Amino acid sequence: MAIKKKVRTLTPAEHRENQKKEYATCWINSEVIFGANLFPVQESFTQKITILFLVDATDYTAERIIEIMQLWNQKYSNLKWDDVLVFQQKYAFIKNQKFIDRFKHQKIFLDTFGELFERFGSKTEPVAVILKNGEFVSSMPLLPKFTDQIFQLELELQKSLRNDDIGLPLLAPEKLVKKNVPIEQQNFTPETVTTFGEWSGTNDLLITQKNGSILSIPFRGKHLRFVGMAHPDSREPIKALITFNEKPLNSSVQTGIIHEDSSGATTIEINKITGVYDLIQSENEIAGVLKISIINAYDNGLIFYGFKVSS
């Protein structure tokens, strides 16, 4: 009869060290704070309030949250609280430094296996989750009324801070109105855009290696964002022609990434690391059909994830 080898139970310190190593690649701009199922790797995680923002990394709301957190970090400096952006790892470019630079050193947790999104999230991102000493306190969706919900979230943060100090002096929350960053948005996923040419893929992404392939969407708003990339094995950027109502994109709504060639045509170059391309930024709402026609896909291949439209 074979004798089973007894497996030694790991000490708490050894388990923390294992979790630290296992989840090291999931943390950006931060040391490992927690691992599987919010297992605390740093003791500080169990000694303060933590706000998790479960949000799509390419959404306008992610940038707005960062700006608000910068204000809150000044407003609540020296108090025991922290904030973490939680992204699902659903884009091939999400770890590229040029994309990560958009988040200004904000602590980011990549929910690679979807644990937190399954536990706290919803189909309509984003969601804010408040934890105290590593334990769940409350959660709330941040859309559709983003400004109102952020106001309520700050009230919840103050309530949690005062639980340990009833008389804690805090400045009253105020509704923060942003001038330039859009909040409410409409998502055009691969299954909701019109395509021409040879495309393959799923509900989450489309791929083409055929010159002349076209993406087309009806646009009404002030801001339009393209989410996509050249194939990870590409040697050079994808070049694409952009038209609005069958004409070159008007210079009054172009962003800095739009180029005009000698014939007056408007074009864009899509690389494999940037991920997010703001095509239109207009002071007034405009309407029409935007088309992106691929020029050199045969040698590289384009991956398309979606459009974000906002007013």
Q: Tell me the helix content.
A: 10-25%
Number of strands: 17
Number of helices: 5
Structural class: alpha+beta
- At CATH level 3, the topology of the largest domain is Glutaredoxin
Strand content: 25-35%
Mean pLDDT: 90
Order of helices and strands: HEEHEHEHEEHEEEEEEEEEEE
Uncertain stretches: none
CATH architecture of the largest domain: 3-Layer(aba) Sandwich
Task: Provide structural commentary.
- By secondary structure, this protein is α+β, with helices and mostly antiparallel strands.
- It has two domains: 12-162, 3-Layer(aba) Sandwich (Glutaredoxin), CATH 3.40.30; 186-310, Jelly Rolls, CATH 2.60.120.
- Helices cover 17% and strands 33% of the residues.
- The protein has helices at 12-22, 60-75, 97-100, 115-120, 146-162; strands at residues 27-28, 49-54, 81-87, 108-110, 127-132, 135-141, 186-188, 194-196, 200-201, 206-208, 214-230, 238-244, 247-248, 259-260, 266-270, 276-294, 302-310.
- Strands 7, 8, 9, 10, 11, 12, 13, 14, 15, 16 and 17 form an eleven-stranded antiparallel beta sheet that branches. The chain has a six-stranded mixed beta sheet with strand order 1-4-3-2-5-6.
- The protein is globular and about 65 Å long.
Could you give the topology of this structure?
Elements: H1 12-22, E1 27-28, E2 49-54, H2 60-75, E3 81-87, H3 97-100, E4 108-110, H4 115-120, E5 127-132, E6 135-141, H5 146-162, E7 186-188, E8 194-196, E9 200-201, E10 206-208, E11 214-230, E12 238-244, E13 247-248, E14 259-260, E15 266-270, E16 276-294, E17 302-310
Parallel strand pairs: 2-3, 3-4
Antiparallel strand pairs: 1-4, 2-5, 5-6, 7-17, 8-11, 9-10, 10-17, 11-16, 11-17, 12-13, 12-15, 12-16, 14-15
